[in-house]
């Protein structure tokens, strides 16, 4: 009953093979490749894996990339299945104006966050942050309803926009400091504080909506480690949040 989970972001494809499609299942193998290297997965990374019994994936990189991955999955007699956001899934209610327009990665991460929170104790609100090419900051109430969220540029997009639109600025190698006294530090600190400021604002909104109850803050994404040290609030960095969500969804569907 092994289960293959695939997360196709804007930059990389991450995958994990689990012993079963259940939350907390043992990881048998895992890996990541940049999107330009997808076409050798069947010949390299996946070649020696045991045949998965099922798979479920999350893709935000577009149809062309999805089709390339499906070609690699022909290595096995396996039906590709991809998450499409819906009104309800695995205990989470989608409050987006048009539920199917919510990014699949955000939807899966919300479901993963809900499962993570319930495994830790009583139900409570959660702020779910993904830091990658873009940054999303989403609010989930204690009843599992997605209320809405923010989207803002990631570090790389911010810095490239400043470099291309402002004379004399170059992508920096600076540090995050309280009072930047050079341009590199000013750019690096500005990008980081923009992201942490958005997180703090959403956390405050969700606490007010929840009658003052302090939300749990979960962060994931390839660049989460860059932001986490500068959050002056309790938080947890969960690298596997999208995989956790895929496991939750698959387990729920099998139980229906």
UniProtKB/TrEMBL annotation:
It holds the Pfam family Pan_kinase. It is found in: Cytoplasm. Substrate binds at residues 96, 103-106, 183. Transmembrane segments: none annotated. InterPro entries: ATPase_NBD, Type_III_PanK. GO terms for cellular component: cytoplasm. Keywords: ATP-binding, Coenzyme A biosynthesis, Cytoplasm, Kinase, Nucleotide-binding, Potassium, Transferase. This is Type III pantothenate kinase. It comes from Ideonella dechloratans. The gene is coaX.
């Amino acid at each position: 009953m092994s289960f293959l989970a695939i997360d196709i972001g804007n930059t990389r494809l991450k995958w994990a093979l689990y012993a079963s499609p259940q939350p907390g299942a043992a990881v048998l193998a895992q890996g990541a490749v940049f999107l330009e290297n997808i076409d050798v997965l069947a010949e390299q990374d996946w070649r020696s894996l045991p045949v998965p019994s099922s798979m479920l994936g999350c893709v935000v990189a577009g149809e062309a990339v999805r089709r390339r991955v499906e070609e690699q999955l022909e290595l096995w007699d396996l039906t590709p299945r991809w998450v499409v956001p819906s009104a309800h899934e695995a205990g989470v209610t989608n409050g987006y104006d048009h539920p199917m327009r919510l990014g699949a990665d955000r939807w899966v991460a919300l479901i993963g966050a809900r499962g993570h929170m319930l495994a830790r104790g009583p139900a409570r609100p959660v702020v779910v942050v993904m830091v990658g090419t873009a940054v999303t900051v989403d609010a989930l109430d204690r009843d599992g309803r997605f209320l809405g969220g923010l989207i803002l540029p990631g570090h790389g997009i911010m810095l490239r926009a400043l470099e291309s639109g402002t004379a004399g600025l170059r992508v920096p190698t600076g540090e995050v400091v309280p009072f930047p006294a050079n341009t590199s530090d000013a750019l690096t600190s500005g990008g980081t504080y923009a992201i942490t400021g958005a997180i703090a604002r959403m956390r405050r909104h969700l606490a007010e909506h929840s009658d003052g109850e302090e939300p749990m803050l979960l962060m994931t994404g390839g660049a989460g480690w860059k932001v986490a040290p500068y959050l002056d609030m309790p938080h947890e960095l969960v690298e596997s949040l999208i995989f956790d969500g895929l496991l939750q969804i698959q387990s729920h569907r099998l139980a229906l």
